[in-house]
Write a structure and sequence with these properties.
The protein has 16 helices and 16 strands. By secondary structure, the chain is of the alpha/beta class.
Length: 421
């Protein structure tokens, strides 16, 4: 064995192994498969061997192409996977914060012309280059905090031209940053002002014009819908998701975030890969997701930003529902850090640090239909690895305000490293 790159004498490796075919559930989420004093051999962007350092060294026939990197006392994990973001948008939304502090709800801010509609105006006015510059900055911040795969949605253009502009921005980001991006079309994020009072007509536009145009472009892998009271009803969401599925897209659903509308049940019914938010999901809806194999992607920073109750992660895990975590980076929740997300999941949703680590790696990979290639440190998988300056998974929540990233490796390349030992 002659690797391109060898990582050796790593204090602990949390491999998250043996769950490439299906996400972790229940007690499995607390098992992260630790190797003490471990090593990882990498070749051609793939992991070719992982195990105790002495065993891996005995299998190497000649020196690696690059100098061996050593990380004593540190923790290696799979690259973090941020499986739910709204990375691309124009402008910013700090003025909405004043309304939030004054006690306005999310839907009240939306009705006052803030929220999504504020961002809509800025996004429509922005050029592709402006959107790329903004999104590059946000993605770079996320990368520096350990994310090697980022899902990014459209949804602030709300017409065919501007939705395609947003998706094109994500395509350009793929060329500019050495990490993986997953594109999601979300033309059904809100009803634009020109369709006020005519939601069914806007749904027709999404189905008859936007989805075919997105399919032709090849820009989006997933379709998502904001299934929520005052936005898109269950039936309207079902129509959009069914059309997207017929056009070859995989499905996600913003479900039961603000009221218990039945989005979790809909996600299960249409075979969505994940249902996201779920703060108000019913027990029946969660049971239907469990039977359908739909992953629960929880976004605690959104609850923090909205100052609302948090999703009941403990109940979901104990019932055997696979849970993923994501930042939900967006103009209303400008959270680039999965460290902050992990901390909130433990402090506010009663998850353990090891469950949270499972939720931002292998389960997040499955939430993007990438469990076979990403999310764990195993031979044959993409060499996406984060070296953290901490001794064990529990340390992640003890230092909850810190960026613990020492080195980020994406597809076998060191793309970020902190100065110092």
């Amino acid at each position: 064995m002659k690797p391109d790159l060898l990582l050796a004498n790593i204090g602990q490796i949390a491999t998250l192994a043996d769950h490439s075919e299906a996400p972790k559930k229940g007690a499995q989420m607390n098992e992260v498969s630790i190797i003490e004093d471990g090593a990882i051999a990498i070749k051609d962007g793939k992991i070719i061997a992982v195990g105790p350092t002495n065993e891996i060294l005995s299998e190497i026939s000649s020196d690696p192409v690059l100098p061996t990197l050593e990380f004593p006392g540190m923790l290696a994990t799979p690259g973090f996977i941020d499986s739910h973001t709204h990375l691309v948008f124009g402008g910013s939304r700090e003025r909405d914060f004043a309304m939030k502090l004054a006690g306005k709800t999310y839907l009240e801010i939306l009705e006052a012309g803030g929220g999504i509609l504020n961002t809509l105006r800025s996004t429509r006015a922005a050029s592709v280059n402006e959107l790329v510059a903004n999104a590059f900055s946000y993605a770079e911040g996320t990368l520096n905090m350990g994310s090697t795969t980022i899902e990014a949605k459209s949804g602030y253009g709300l017409n065919t031209e501007n939705e395609l502009k947003m998706l094109k921005t994500i395509e350009i980001l793929r060329e500019k940053l050495p990490i993986d991006f997953v594109s999601t079309f979300m033309g059904a994020h809100a009803v634009p002002p020109e369709f006020e009072g005519k939601t069914d007509s806007y749904v027709d536009l999404v189905i008859d014009e936007m989805i075919p145009a997105v399919k032709k472009s090849g820009y989006a892998e997933f379709c998502d819908v904001f299934c929520e009271q005052g936005v898109f009803s269950i039936e309207q969401s079902r129509r959009i998701l069914t059309a997207a599925k017929q056009n070859g897209m995989k499905l996600k659903v913003h479900a039961d975030e603000i009221v218990q509308l039945g989005g979790a049940s809909l996600a299960a019914e249409v075979g969505a890969v994940s249902a996201d938010h779920l703060l108000m999901a019913s027990d029946d809806g969660l049971e239907e997701m469990l039977k359908a194999g739909t992953i629960a992607t929880l976004l605690p920073a959104t609850a923090f930003s909205l100052n609302t109750e948090y999703a009941n992660a403990r109940k979901m895990i104990e019932m055997g529902l696979p849970v993923a975590l994501a930042t939900d980076f967006n103009p209303n929740c400008a959270n680039e850090s999965l460290f902050f997300t992990i901390a909130l999941s433990c402090y506010k949703m009663r998850m353990t640090p090891r469950e949270a680590l499972s939720a931002v790696t292998i389960n997040a990979a499955h939430a993007l239909d990438r469990g076979a290639t990403h999310g764990s440190i195993e031979a044959g998988k993409a060499a996406d690895i984060v070296i953290l300056d901490c001794p064990n998974p529990e340390y992640l929540t003890w230092r909850f305000g810190a960026n613990l990233v020492h080195t980020v490796i994406s597809n076998g390349q060191v793309i970020h490293s902190r100065l110092g030992p």
